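It would be a great kindness if you could assist me with a short task in structural biology. The matter concerns a single protein, recorded as an amino acid sequence and a row of backbone structure tokens. The record follows directly beneath this note:
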Amino acid sequence: MIGTSMITRGGIPQGLVFAEHCGCTAAQLYVAPSRAWAVPPLSEFDRELFGRRWAQGPVSEIVAHASLLLNLASPNFELWRRSTDRLVAEVDRCLELGISKIVFHPGSNADKDEAIQLISKALNEVAKRTVGVTILIENMAGQGNTLGSRFEEIAAILALLEQPSRFGLCLDTCHAFAAGYDLRGLDGYFSVMDAIEKIIPLTRIGTFHVNDSKVELGRRVDRHAEIIGGGHIGIDTFAALMSDERFYGVPMIAEVPNGEITSAPAVALLHELRAGHVPARSLPLQSAFQL
């Protein structure tokens, strides 16, 4: 399952039109505005239209991405509470839409031990207040005081969860590389995967964010390259990932800057790599998506 982040300008159902335009068999979307706290109600018309378009189109799995405002690691109780309640609302929205997975960023706190306790407390509450949807912790690049740049930190959160089957990992290749995991080439790819498996079973990976990096190894800066294989990680790593049979059933989501132009060629490239074709150069960018 291969796809990209949907562009939902014009409403959530419109995101499926974009996904089909890009040749997606999987996709990711925000189920509510990502940079606003309110979760506006979803109209019955949009919910039914979304369901029909999804059922009739080529996308087999949709993954949600939680608001970028969330900070479940915050020592500020008001922000922690607001973040927890917002994640509950988004999980409920996923259930309403039939989406089975949601990805979130762990949050930021200068005290890592406190952060792990706060995140696990929030996730345990979310699990008690919701049903059905799998919640995936995304590994981070390591900017500032963000938690989750080391897989040991994510494992520590997972170990404290009361309903572990509800939770897993979203592995972002750009973030891992920026955090210092050298994924470059076949040897680098398999070495990093082996290292992760010793900390978190690879079966707990529920989604990949398949992103190349604009920055060099270990710079702890989250900057995605516009072209997969055109950044500092390189095409061989992505060829290895897309041909790794362990992950054939896991959604592979490209998150590329300027997505209206770059998403379709990114998805096409990933399909080529899954088919075993490693292009000599990246596929050309196509025209922008038009509503």
Q: What stands out?
A: DSSP finds nine helices and eight strands in the chain. The two ends are 24 Å apart (CA to CA). The first strand starts at residue 2 and ends at 5.
